[in-house]
């Protein structure tokens, strides 16, 4: 029999009022879902209970855990939003409604739109806590995926790998990213899963003895340099990320050096560099594979030193060196933010997530948040040159943010506000700049569709080609072989890429006359 204490025991920093709130949400959810069962036949409440436990393990606050307990109450058992607001307040209602809204997004298995879908997901959430609840919800759903009817299973597994996994990764929540991938991979790609599992098993067996010997020697060398309070552990990549790397390396397993990585966890940052000295002093590193993510953290906040060495007995192994705190951050990412209270804003006794300090942590120290761009702001592009576009935009944006207080508003209106998200009739998401027209949409789908537009329906109604699209519109382009672009289209299109394609078409036509 589940109980609230199981949730509360996982979290050390919840106030007595917070505990009361969780207990109330617990009984409320139990009542609301009492006649509701899961595919497995167990009471539906178990799903809510497990979701709340995951949130507590991630160190989330009482509001978020309570919203986790209530997250399906509007959608699945028709609790009125007013009831949630009356019983639990506006903030929890906001979180529950956010999760409900995200539940309506669907991944249809088209690669070209998946990046838009991920962005839309984060944009729609408005608050990172909504994303975290949705990740916890999905994690429990994939933990019990075997009970879901087969025809649904594969879609959920693919969506998990394509949308939820990458979002967890970008938010730096490795712990969830890894588990989502490990659970969904066998359902999404059963044959590939078996293939990689076999390869890994074989490699593991081959190496086990030598690795153990190596760790012993390494520990001795570290101890000689007073590095005694250390933990070592072998991290195996998630099978899915290993599989993706395997494909990138042309299916040559021997070319993947970090199949197993040895982690050295030390107390301080100085110890990290000292340990690196010991490693390189005793074993030859592979050139070009030394990465200092302590001095240059990854865009998602990840910090560690990576190096790959020859062990001397014919093996090559990756070593990752980090402090305990970096380790925790690398596992929990944005979620760990709640564990460091001093970085959170307090408002009316409720803790709010402060995205500014999170983003600040991701950026090199020298960047200032003043309204006049300093000379250094131009340097900021360098560490982001390989980052996903939205992280870059975020980084560039923050350097212009006038004050901390306005930051979140600006983030929403500037970062997301200059884009709109519209849908194909099948429900695929396409993101476009504000003021885009159906012409931009058609060209974003495919040049061939753009070149043959004869009409367009927005939300089922015929409209003119210069109609401005709005967020959430469903757009159907009607094509005809005989239709082709005219000069007017150049002005009607708002995106540079559509304008370019139309001009090229017209130019081409002129030459053929
Ligand atoms: Mn759910």
Structural class based on helices, strands and sheet pairing? alpha+beta
Shape: globular
- Largest sheet: number of strands, sense, barrel closure: 5 strands, mixed
Question: Helical content, roughly?
Answer: 40-55%
- Ligand set: manganese (II) ion
User: Number of helix segments?
Assistant: 22
Unreliable spans are 338-417
Task: Report the span from N to C terminus.
Answer: 80 Å
Q: What is the radius of gyration? A: 26 Å
Main-sheet strand order equals 1-2-5-4-3
Lay out the secondary structure.
Layout lengths: L3 H5 L7 H17 L12 H13 L4 H9 L2 H5 L3 H8 L1 H13 L11 H12 L2 H16 L6 H21 L3 H15 L1 H35 L6 E6 L2 H10 L11 E7 L2 H14 L8 E2 L12 E6 L5 E8 H9 L12 E3 L2 E3 L2 H8 L26 H12 L6 H10 L2 E5 L5 E5 L4 H8 L1 H5 L1 E6 L2 E3 L11 E5 L7 H6 L3 H16 L2
Parallel strand pairs: 2-5
Antiparallel strand pairs: 1-2, 3-4, 4-5, 6-7, 8-9, 10-11, 10-12
Bound molecules: manganese (II) ion.
